[in-house]
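Thread: "does anyone have the structure for this chain?"

Original post by V.I.:
We have the sequence but no experimental structure in hand. Need at least a predicted one for the grant figures.
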Amino acid sequence: MHESVDGEWSFIETLRHLVFATDSWVGRAILGDPSPWDPLGLPWDEMADTPGVPRDRDARPSLDALLVLRRDRMAKVREVIDGLTEDALDGDTQPVEAPGWPPSRSYPVRECLLIVLNEEWEHRLYAERDLAALEAALAAEQGGARPAAG
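Reply from O.Q.:
Generated one for you, tokens below.
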């Protein structure tokens, strides 16, 4: 779960990034929390240090710990979507007057949700690709041994 493929994020780091994306675009931008980030959230590598935003690249949480966070964030997104009206979906967020990510300004609610959905989709593809590569490497390491039929 902590192994990287070709310098990309590990599966755990990918989950940490998805927590960060949800905290940022749903917690901060849509719900207006000025500091929604869990310490295990992981911004993208090139993001500048931002006051109040966690950036512990070396944290190595367990899969179980991250799944608890992910379930919580997924429930938060579900709650936001369930409470949306067409007008609210087509509306804009209120700026959060505090340092953080995303920057303090108004955003279309639809755009915020699409960013989160896009992050989920793209990072799922990356994770599946990398897990397949790790499985293939493990199989090659084991000499392609398969259980005997019988």
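V.I.: this helps a lot. The mean pLDDT is 91.
O.Q.: and Residues 62 and 100 are 26 Å apart (CA to CA).
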